[in-house]
Specification:
- The protein is α+β, with helices and mostly antiparallel strands.
- 46% of the residues lie in helices and 15% in strands.
- It is built from 13 helices and 10 strands.
- The strands form 3 sheets. Strands 7-8-9-10 form a 4-stranded mixed beta sheet, sandwiched between helices. A 3-stranded antiparallel beta sheet has the order 1-3-2.
- It starts with a helix and ends with a helix.
């Protein structure tokens, strides 16, 4: 019955070959009936899924497993990447299957994985091929902050990325609450500025960065646009000023698209000390 088909497919993360479903006791009649009723979707010959439009289903159509930036986003990792493509891992020697509206980016290694999503550490190694150095650094710190990487995972990643990235990983920390913080800290390191991160300032609370008496706050992709959040930010800045600090606040657009202005503002503030 259709419910039996769904149960069998659930055990395979929602995607499975017909031969595997048949080996679990599902009949060919049940498969045909499930497709007719919309319970299952035939992705390609002999391959079935619950739905057709997910990145996981697209990867299976392509012949592999979702990886790189697509998988990282699935896990909730902060990723700076604008491409609409689905990134797919296809084992070396396996066939790539053309499919309608394919915009897949193919990654090849000898590793074989079931349909679904590559583990975070492997997705990060694949992302090293597609992201800029600072975007990769931000994704790595995001995964670490969310406790998605163990010590052995981090060592495994370091051993498999280019030397230029290993240097950055040695600078990485587990306390970056957003990728914007990671990117800003990395850029300031490049110009020789050392700062303290996630500092508890009496009367103000925890702030993103402190350089002597200068506080740097990064407000996130959407910023603090509503009036209540804006008031809270202004109150924090006022209390920081009472404590002898000056505050510079940057949003997503400034950090990502206006790098010279951000660095110029910080350097200008430091000169006025």
């Amino acid at each position: 019955m259709a419910m039996d088909v769904r149960h069998a497919l659930t055990r395979s993360q929602g995607i499975a070959y017909a031969r595997d479903l048949l080996s679990q006791g599902v009949s060919r009649h049940d498969l045909s009936r499930a497709v007719e009723t919309g319970t299952l979707v035939r992705l390609r010959s002999g391959l079935f899924a619950f739905e057709a439009d997910s990145s996981m289903a697209s990867a299976a159509r392509h012949g592999g497993t979702t990886t790189c930036v697509t998988a990282l986003r699935h896990y909730g990792v902060w990723v700076l990447y604008d491409g609409p493509e689905n990134h797919v891992h296809v084992p070396v020697g396996s066939r790539i299957h053309p499919h309608p509206e394919c915009s897949c980016v193919t990654h090849r290694t000898p590793i074989r994985r079931p349909f679904g999503f590559m583990p975070v550490r492997e997705a990060l190694v694949h992302a090293a091929q597609c992201l800029s150095s600072e975007a990769f650094f931000a994704a790595f710190e995001s995964a670490w902050f969310q406790r998605l990487l163990s010590r052995s995972d981090r060592a495994w990643i370091r051993s498999r990325v280019p030397t230029r990235l290993r240097v950055l990983l040695d600078f990485a920390r587990p306390d970056a609450e957003s990728g914007l913080e990671s990117i800003l800290r990395l850029r300031l390191r490049a110009v020789g500025i050392t700062l303290r991160t996630q500092v508890l300032v009496p009367g103000v609370g925890r702030v993103d960065f402190v350089i002597d008496e200068l506080i740097l706050e990064v407000d996130g992709e959407l910023g603090h646009a509503d009036s209540r959040s804006r008031h809270k930010d202004l109150l924090r800045d006022a209390r920081a000023a009472q404590a002898g600090y000056r505050t510079l606040r940057f949003d997503y657009a400034l950090v990502i698209h206006q790098r010279p202005e951000v660095l110029g503002a910080i350097l200008g503030a430091l000169k006025q000390r």
